[in-house]
Amino acid sequence: MAEQKYLFKMEMTCDGCANAAKRVLGKLPEVKSVETSLEAQTVTVVSTLSSDVLLESLKKTGKECSFIGLA
């Protein structure tokens, strides 16, 4: 699958929440980069994985999250 840039909405209240997202996604070797925005409550991911796989990983943080679309 070609590399895509995905945008997810994720409930984040602090840097710990943002770091949790980076930590779970960072365990996936197919993830090239992860950017978080506390203000916008978003996570931007560059990866060759599908949005479904990335969303399932983000849900492991225990936070409310959803796929918005391609960034």
TrEMBL record:
Entry-linked PROSITE patterns: HMA_2
InterPro entries: Copper_transport_ATOX1-like (IPR051881), HMA_dom (IPR006121), HMA_dom_sf (IPR036163)
GO cellular component: cytosol
PANTHER family: COPPER TRANSPORT PROTEIN ATOX1
GO molecular function: copper chaperone activity; metal ion binding
Functional summary from the UniProt entry: Binds and deliver cytosolic copper to the copper ATPase proteins. May be important in cellular antioxidant defense.
Subunit and interaction comment: Homodimer. Interacts with ATP7B. Interacts with ATP7A. Interacts (via dimer form) with SLC31A1 (via C-terminal domain); this interaction improves ATOX1 stability and controls intracellular Cu(I) levels.
Native source organism of the sequence: Lymnaea stagnalis (Great pond snail)
Similarity-based family: Belongs to the ATX1 family.
Protein's UniProt name: Copper transport protein ATOX1
Keywords, comma-separated and alphabetical: Chaperone, Copper, Copper transport, Ion transport, Metal-binding, Transport
UniProt domain HMA: residue ranges: 3-66
One GO BP annotation of this record: copper ion transport
